[in-house]
TrEMBL record:
Its EC number is 1.4.3.4. One of its GO terms (cellular component) is mitochondrial outer membrane. It catalyses: a secondary aliphatic amine + O2 + H2O = a primary amine + an aldehyde + H2O2. It is a single-pass type IV membrane protein. It comes from Adineta steineri. This is monoamine oxidase. It is found in: Mitochondrion outer membrane. Residues 31-100, 124-364 form the Amine oxidase domain. It holds the Pfam family Amino_oxidase. InterPro entries: Amino_oxidase, FAD/NAD-bd_sf, Flavin_MAO. One of its GO terms (molecular function) is monoamine oxidase activity.
């Protein structure tokens, strides 16, 4: 089953108390948190530091969630042509792209319960998938961080953060669900803002102007259920169908080809709480009896994922829009927000996750060097 390398988990470690070692805690091992860690380790080569990434789930990747050996995705699938930061990242990590198949006719359901073939050009706008799925971005970054760097990064899985305190001595206490605490000098919050504000207690409170925005910031795709149906043959291609279909009457709503050299598959966007049988029945209704017997069905209902969605309506309302209030640092430069949702470009997408992770790393590293210089000159920071 899907697995984004949880074997890289390391034992919980106490971060160093050495005052010269900057202790950074990143909350969330999704694409944004991992990209931020990757860039920080590169920028901080000359600044002693220790990064601890604390992840609630038993896996890394967040909303990228793949079955790597089948090149299948239960979370994000596509990299769009104008998403240059995530494309560059995939290139740097040596991850090959896969074409998104869309040859042939598509199907649209009709009010009388049948489906009508329709010719649709350029359905996916040139979007590509990734070999190993988009989870391979996170798996490759983790591999780089744990194997190639000089042990400056720890990852702790199964560790939901429940509260974060900014202390009088300017240190930060990050508390986990098991009451274990990690001390830090800087904290990067790389989880969806709406989830942050409803599940993590922050003391002192952040400004109300910020909290208002975080509460309203929809988590992209958090109310979606995604299913993948694997078949022995790509029978839709044999019938000159693209595999793309749309229904606005069924709980399963949008089908796409998800085949590659390793399997023949359709993936389906569904409404929250769609069952395995409802996906199969809907696929049969749209495509006919060929769809009856998938050899495997994988399904992830993101609306029920406690570490993505804060309510069933979380992802409704399109792409999130927040202002620079969400992109400032708080607590005297000690607290930063990094998640796709707060990106100033392509928020909600993989591109936003990468762009924001890079931006936070750049700004935080710059601040850390400034603070280091000041403290070397005897100035209180
Ligand atoms: C079904 C689906 C399809 C999508 N399709 C596409 C697509 O085709 N193209 C595209 O560009 N984007 C797509 N997206 C969006 C894309 O997946 C996200 O933009 C991106 O993965 C967000 O990364 P992130 O790091 O900001 O957040 P996340 O991936 O949500 O990572 C946040 C991390 O924080 C962790 N966490 C949460 N709470 C805590 C806590 N209290 N303590 C510690 N850790 C915590 C989570 O477990 C998670 O690992 C899709 C998303 C979904 C769900």
């Amino acid at each position: 089953m899907a697995d984004n390398c949880n074997q890289h988990s390391v034992e919980k470690t106490d971060t160093s108390n050495d005052i010269d070692i900057a202790r950074i805690v990143i909350v969330g091992a999704g694409l944004s948190g991992l990209t931020c860690a990757r860039n920080l380790t590169r920028l901080l080569k000359k600044r002693p530091h220790q990064i601890t990434i604390v992840e609630a789930r038993d896996r890394i990747g967040g909303r990228t969630f793949s079955i790597p050996e089948l090149n299948l995705d239960l979370g994000a699938s596509w990299i769009f042509p104008d998403h240059t930061a995530v494309r560059a990242l995939a290139n740097e990590l040596g991850i090959n792209k896969l074409e998104q198949y869309e040859g042939g006719m598509s199907l649209v359901d009709t009010m009388n319960g049948t489906s009508r073939p329709t010719s649709m050009g350029n359905i996916h706008g040139g979007a590509k998938r990734l070999k190993g799925g988009t989870g391979s971005l996170c798996a490759s970054i983790l591999n780089e961080l744990t194997n190639r760097n000089e042990a400056t990064v720890n990852i702790q899985l199964n560790s939901p953060v429940t509260s974060i305190n900014y202390n009088d001595d300017k240190s930060i206490t990050v508390k986990l669900h098991d009451h274990h605490s990690i001390m830090a000098d800087y904290v990067v919050l790389a989880l969806p803002p709406k989830l942050l504000i409803s599940t993590v207690q922050l003391t002192p409170m952040l400004p109300s102007s910020l909290i208002e925005q975080l509460k309203k910031c929809v988590t992209w795709m958090a109310s979606t259920c995604k299913a993948v149906l694997v078949y022995e043959r790509a029978w839709w291609r044999e019938k000159k169908l693209s595999g793309f279909a749309v229904s606005r009457q069924l709980k399963a709503q949008e089908w796409h080809d998800a085949s590659s050299a390793t399997c023949n598959a359709l993936f389906v966007f569904c409404l929250a709480n769609t069952t395995r049988q409802q996906v199969i029945d809907a696929t049969v209704k749209i495509f006919g009896s060929d769809a009856e017997n998938p050899t495997a069905v994988y399904i992830t209902d993101w609306s029920n994922e406690a570490f993505t969605s804060s309510s069933v309506n979380d992802g409704r309302g399109g792409h999130p829009h927040v202002t620079d209030v969400c992109r400032q640092a708080y607590w005297n430069g000690r607290l930063w927000l990094s998640s796709s949702e707060v990106s100033d470009t392509d928020s909600g997408f993989l591109e936003g996750a990468v762009t924001r992770g890079i931006q936070v790393a750049d700004q935080l590293a710059e601040l850390m060097f400034k603070e280091k210089t000041k403290s070397q000159n005897g100035i209180d920071v």
